[in-house]
Design brief:
This protein has 13 helices and seven strands. It has 343 residues and is mainly α. It has a domain at 198-340: Cytochrome c-like domain (Cytochrome Bc1 Complex, Chain D, domain 2). The strands form three sheets. A three-stranded mixed beta sheet has the order 1-7-6. A two-stranded antiparallel ribbon has the order 2-5. A two-stranded antiparallel sheet has the order 3-4. Helix 5 (142-153) crosses helix 7, helix 9 (259-269) crosses helix 13 (328-340) and helix 11 (299-311) runs antiparallel to helix 13. The N and C termini lie far apart (49 Å). The model is unreliable at 1-24 (pLDDT under 50).
Length: 343
């Protein structure tokens, strides 16, 4: 098929066939998926991920070239030094702080290269904290992690934004994991506590940013830009996060002025629009033995989940009615508040 607008024709066809091209006046949280503009007809979308394909590279965007001159990089308090390539190695990424966690299962530490299953620790980090463009899994109940792997495998957890390829890659990983691998990874990440990871700042402006292949926002040249009704989430230490994959360096989320207070009102009372978050997620929204904690998780991740529930791409008999009456501004307020909480 002929390319269209610089991207493969299958990408454009998939947008039209799936009904995912939208009018420009429909507001969507593009920022939560790592994009600065709405989905357009010429935009690249995630590669189609069919049975028999490898999670990586078949179901992912091609990796961009990275500069590595062989320099050994250092992080505060880390005994070992690694090059950029070692920090990013798909099948055994750098473990900067091995004292942070129990011994990693093989699937977490190195994945399974023969099938294209990249190490869990690559995206989620050895301590499970992850980044804004993926999910933090530390401290989630093991039963919940296994449930979500089943939902991904069965097609009940997809991204509402077809540009987001790492969701497709994760679904294919879920289809290929053995029960032993899934169980060992779930128990490993469940054994660790979620650490403070997001600093929420109410602001009228935010730093200018650029986006990476999978949706990490990084600083761009220029002066501050109006924040508007968005949330802009960036690494506290961009080089340490992007180049070295530092599992100790978190994020700052710039949120609209007043959003935390409005979100608290919605989250704690429901305001006849939704349910109290604590009814399921427990005191302080720190979760229960079976329900995930959401306090202090990244705002981008939290918004993606609310939006995916509202669009029907993530199925849930519990959460779908919870979000059904919420508009985009109310969701933004809620995630600003929840991200601001101590985990």
């Amino acid at each position: 098929m002929r390319p269209f607008g610089g991207w493969p024709a299958w990408g454009v066809f998939s947008l039209v066939a799936a009904g995912l091209l939208v009018a420009s006046d429909i507001r969507r949280p593009d920022w939560a998926y790592g994009y600065l503009k709405p989905l357009g007809v010429a935009d690249r979308v995630a590669p189609p991920c069919q049975p028999g394909m490898r999670p990586y590279p078949d179901c992912a965007y091609p990796a961009g070239a990275s500069f590595d001159d062989g320099t050994k990089l250092e992080l505060p308090g880390a005994a070992a030094k690694f090059t950029r390539s070692q920090a990013y190695f798909d099948y055994g990424p750098a473990d900067w702080y091995p004292g942070d966690h129990p011994q990693m299962p093989e699937i977490v530490a190195r994945g399974r290269q023969s099938l294209g299953i990249r190490a869990c620790a690559l995206c989620h980090f050895p301590n499970g904290q992850g980044k804004m463009e993926n999910g933090g899994v530390a401290g989630l109940p093991a039963s919940y992690i296994l449930q979500q792997l089943r939902e991904l495998k069965n097609g009940n957890r997809r991204s509402a934004d077809p540009r987001k390829a790492n969701t497709n890659e994760m679904a294919q990983i879920a289809r290929l994991l053995t029960e032993e691998e899934a169980s060992s990874a779930a128990n490993y990440f469940a054994s660790m506590k979620w650490r403070p990871w997001v600093r929420v700042v109410e602001a009228n402006e935010a730093p200018p940013v650029r986006t990476t292949t999978n949706g990490l926002f990084l600083p761009a040249a220029g002066v501050s830009v109006p924040l508007g009704d968005r949330i802009i989430e960036v690494p506290e230490n961009p080089e340490r996060t992007d180049v070295m994959r530092d599992p100790h360096s978190g994020f700052v989320a710039y949120v609209p002025v007043g959003s935390v207070g409005k979100g608290e009102t919605l989250a704690t009372s429901g305001e006849s629009k939704t349910a109290r978050c604590s009814a399921c997620h427990g005191q302080g929204l720190k979760g229960t033995s079976t329900i995930p904690g959401i306090a202090g998780r990244t705002a981008s991740y939290l918004m993606r989940q609310l939006w995916d529930f509202s669009q029907g791409t993530r199925k849930s008999q519990v959460m779908t009615p919870v979000v059904s009456k919420l508009d985009l501004d109310e969701m933004t307020d809620i995630v600003a508040y929840v991200a601001s909480l101590a985990p």
